[in-house]
Each structure stands twice: as structure tokens, then as C-alpha cells.
Amino acid sequence: GGRAVINNNSFDEGIARIFAENDSYYLLAYQPANGAADGRFRRVTVKVNRPDLEVTATRNYWAPKAAPKDQPGDEPPPPDLEALAGVLPMAQLKLHAAAAPFVVPETGSSSIAVALRLDQPPFGARTPETIELLIKAQSSDGLWHGSDQQTIRMTVPAVRNGAASLYEVLARIDVPGPGSYECRVAVQSEATDTRGSIFLDVAVPDFDKDAVSMSGVVMSRPIAPLPIAPPRLLQDVMPVVPTSDREFAPADVVTAFVRLYQGRGAPAASAIVSMQIRDAAGKLVFDRSDLLPADRFNQQAADYQSRLPLATLKTGDYLLTVEATVGKTTARRDVRFRVKP
């Protein structure tokens, strides 16, 4: 199925063929009629009844080989690792999550903070809950970096009118430095005996070297309508308690928080921070700019926080953009949210 573009300085035709092939194919699988686990080499032939189709398929494979009877089989992985190891997340327990990279002030290391919401069937009474959480981070080269496991205990209040029981948990994981990471989080709920996982892509800037960089945008509500535990887990990296919610009512009080960083190779300078909100049609519906003077940057970092103008926004989807400019360098972060009726 490979495509080689050789002896040609124009790649347009070859790339177009690659895209065309990726846009027009069926992925088929079959169960071999010969189920013998003999480890032998077998051939595969795929034919179609139309002359104008091109078939790209495997031509052979090695059958599995049965292990000797006196050799014990491989032990299955622990359930939490199994939830992280799949190609797709485990959906038995419904999860929503948001992640943001930060610098840990005490150590200077990079850390990824995660807010995770559990959507459960309605609890008709106050329910004690124990959550087993495992988080791991994988870099773009396929290597695993860091692991954190915690047991979280909380009490979930009763809900009325058959609404779902919603509550949030917080997690974090330290990573070795800048780069692209996939955070994988597995959660086990004792209250419902269910398990789920979720995968998050996080880009960690080079906080030490970039002229200006930003943490992720953190949404926070001073009066949290959902139980959150453990509430103080992230207090050393941010002054707010994050929420994974991205759907708000016009009367909600919601703030957007970011931390700005300037590289350590030069003295701190003043920064201009702009916050814009655009609706689903791309129309600008909110725009503000603020000047952060150089003396606001303590150890090359400064916090910026602004309340979302939810009361002035109509029902619908929006894109929040936060930009920070120092000199000729600009850092940008985007986050989507929705205003409900």
C-alpha cells in the first residue's frame, strides 16, 4: 500500500494520490476458516468483481502458535492499565476532561493539570464515592513519561428530577519538558462499579526559552455547582479551581485564567494581553486588551484572569481566544465553550 515519489522534484501529484487513496477505501477484516494455532505461514488473496477497482491488501500472515501446555499463559494486565492501553478510550463510564500545562513554581518543572467530570446515573440520595484514578503521559516519540495514581473519596449529593449525577475530580502529572503529549486517564467508580478512560492531547511550550508563552486556558467558577475533589490538589500551580465544563448559563459566573511566561534569557518586559470571543459564524462579539507591566512578572511569570460576559451572549457556540504579545512575539490559546438557554 505504500506510495513512492521518486526522480521528480514535484511532489504534488504523488501527494494527491496519497490523499485520494486515504479518502476512498474500505477496511475489511475476516475470521480465518482454518483456526489451527500452528504458527504456519499462510497466504491471503482478495478479489473484487469490478474491473475498475484497485485492491490493496495484505498478501500473507503468520498464524498464531499455541503455547506449550506446560507453559503458563500471559497474565492479563491490571484493569486500570487495560483501560489506558486500548486504541480507543473505554466508554463504560462517561467522562469529560480539560487539560492545561503549567510550570510548578517550586521546582521549575512542567506539569499538566487535568479537570475530569464524571457523568453518572442519578443518585437519589447522598452517596459516598471512592474513585481510583491513574494518569500517564506519552510523548510524540511513543515513550511514557511519569505516572500518578490516587484514591479520591467524596460524597455526591442527591439529584432531583432524574438529572444525571455530575461531579469532578482533579489530577496532574509532571512531564520532562516541552513537546506534544497524550495524557491518558483511567477512572474506576466504586459507587457504580464502572470504569472509563479518556485521552487528551496537550502541547507543552518551552516555558524557559520562548520569549512569551502561556499555560492552557483554565475555566473556573468561584461558586462551583458541582462537587470537586481534591479541591487543593492544584493550588501550587494555579490560584483557581478548574472545571472541565464548557457549557454555561447566562447567569453563571465564569472566569478564564491563564499564566504568562517569559523566557529566562532576558529581563521581563511589559506584555499586552487580548481576549476575544467569536460566535459560530466567526463574528467578533467581545474584545478587550490589557497591559501587564514588567513588574507583574514574578520569576518570569504573571497571572491574567477575566470574567466571561455570558449575560451578553446569545445561546450558541463560541470560541475564546487569548493572545499575549511581548515585543514582536505572540503566544495564543483557544478554547471552545457554549452558552445554553
Could you characterize the architecture of this molecule?
The structure is a single chain. By secondary structure, the chain is mainly β. Helix content is 6%, strand content 44%. It has two helices and 19 strands. Strands 13-19-18-15-16 form a five-stranded mixed sheet, with no helix packed on it. The protein is globular. The mean pLDDT is 90.
How would you summarize the topology of this molecule?
Layout: H1 12-23, E1 41-43, E2 60-62, H2 79-85, E3 94-103, E4 110-120, E5 127-139, E6 144-156, E7 165-175, E8 179-189, E9 194-204, E10 213-214, E11 218-220, E12 228-229, E13 247-248, E14 255-261, E15 271-279, E16 284-292, E17 301-307, E18 316-326, E19 329-339
Task: Calculate the terminal CA-CA distance, rounded to whole Å.
Answer: 50 Å
User: What is the H-and-E element order?
Assistant: HEEHEEEEEEEEEEEEEEEEE
Number of strands: 19
Classification by helices and strands: mainly beta
- Spatial order of the strands forming the largest sheet: 13-19-18-15-16
Radius of gyration: 25 Å
Tell me the helix content: under 10%
Overall form: globular
Low-confidence stretches: none
Helix run count: 2
Strand percentage lies at 35-45%
Main sheet: strands, sense, barrel: 5 strands, mixed
**Average pLDDT rating:** 90
